[in-house]
Design a protein that fits this description.
CATH superfamily of one domain in chain A: Metalloproteases ("zincins"), catalytic domain
CATH class of one domain in chain A: Alpha Beta
Oligomer: heterodimer
Number of helices of chain A: 9
Shape of chain B: rod-shaped
Distance between the termini of chain A: 72 Å
CATH topology of chain B: de novo design (two linked rop proteins)
Distance between the termini of chain B: 97 Å
Shape of chain A: elongated
Low-confidence stretches of chain A: 238-244
Helix content of chain B: over 70%
Largest sheet of chain B: none
Largest interface: A-B, 13 and 12 residues
Mean pLDDT of chain B: 88
Mean pLDDT of chain A: 78
Structural class of chain B: mainly alpha
Strand content of chain B: under 5%
CATH class of chain B: Mainly Alpha
CATH topology of one domain in chain A: Zincin-like
Strand order of the largest sheet of chain A: 1-2-4-3
Order of helices and strands of chain A: HEHEEEHHHHHHH
Structural class of chain A: alpha+beta
Radius of gyration of chain B: 24 Å
CATH superfamily of chain B: LemA-like domain
Order of helices and strands of chain B: HHHHH
Low-confidence stretches of chain B: 174-183
Number of strands of chain B: 0
Strand content of chain A: 5-15%
Chain lengths: ~260, ~180
Amino acid sequence: MMEGGGWTGMAIGFAIALIMSLVSFYSGDQVILTSVGAYKATREQHSQLINIVEELTMASGLPMPKVYVVPDLSPNAFAAGRDPEHSIVAVNEGLLRILNREELQGVIAHELSHIQNRDIMYATIVAVMLGVIVILSTMFRYSLFFGGSRRSSRDSGGGAIVILIGLLLAILAPIFAKIIQLAISRKREYLADSSAALMTRNPTGLANALNKLYKSSTPSVQVNEAIAPLYIAPLKGKNAQILFSTHPPIKDRIERLNKMAYKI
Amino acid sequence: MSWIWIVAVFVVFIIFLWSKYNSFILLRNRYENGWAQINVELKRRYDLIPNLVNSVKGYMTHEKEVFENVAKARSQAMQANTVAEHSKTESQLTNTLKSLFAVMENYPELKANENVMRLQEELTSTENRISFSRQFYNDIVMRYNQAIQLFPGNIIASMFNFGRQDYFEVDEAQVQDAPKVSL
């Protein structure tokens, strides 16, 4: 009985993983938006934000992405989607609150650079996959927890395999986090910073913005580690459970931008 | 046998002429499209300016000169036809607008006026759009001008009267901060 349950669970898990990876390719951005509770920016309420995005699409030649706002007071922003034609830019309410126009322009240019440099597709897929793995390993943990005591001595192979896979997934999750870190490595962040400077012809705006993000201590309401690498600045969680630093030190990025400003 | 060679050379020449001519046309269409985009934004700016001036006039009763400069620059800009003329008049307009914005900083009560803030945001955005599409336009014009000047394209360019295109240059003067009045 238990054995059958274990196998069914695994099959369901596998099916979920398969569906989710397909979903992540075609609507990963929607999954992420839903998970952070983002709502669409409107011209009435966020005219400046939409204006800035439109201006920068003119500067970069990119198609207009969909613009979202996340009800989160921690200042941060991210871009996602599978290609420039299907891309989104999301900013936290906290960001809109503390940045001036020039700084916001720098941040948006950084996000559009991620879209232009095709960083978003990979990041989006990996973010959703990591989310799935976290769900699966949690599922397995619970199934071990509740199933373990009732497991009889005649239960052999099946149960052991389930335990093994559960353990494997538990190990896989952090490895996946590591892969994301490598994929959207520090270099991509530096690249997006310098592309943004080129796009706006104004490195100072982004440098000032990063400085404000660095100084801000407002914790994020996001507890979802999977999307951390997508953000422009490291997530500041209440429980600070970020395993790996996915971003280069913000001070270093500010320094590089200031050097560019000096050259221009 | 020799007539085959003559035909071959002629065919090569025709193909070369054909492709060069088409590449000039493509570049010209692209910069014309770029200029059309700039024009949309310029028109938008002409429309926004009187709205902004009317909304702030009531607050700024002692700044007649600034308003007059803006109005003059605007009407001059609206009369410009060629790209070269626009380069001149739009620089003027951009600079007078900058000084208007700088003077507006001295009136903190304007910050509370939603309509003024909205118009200022729209104007700033339009300004940025002009400057970003200007970069795009100038890049294309540079490519076009290079294409019609380089040998052997220049021969074909002069055969079909492809002339040089003007850049849209706006020299923005550094506007010094508006004088602070201390009482």
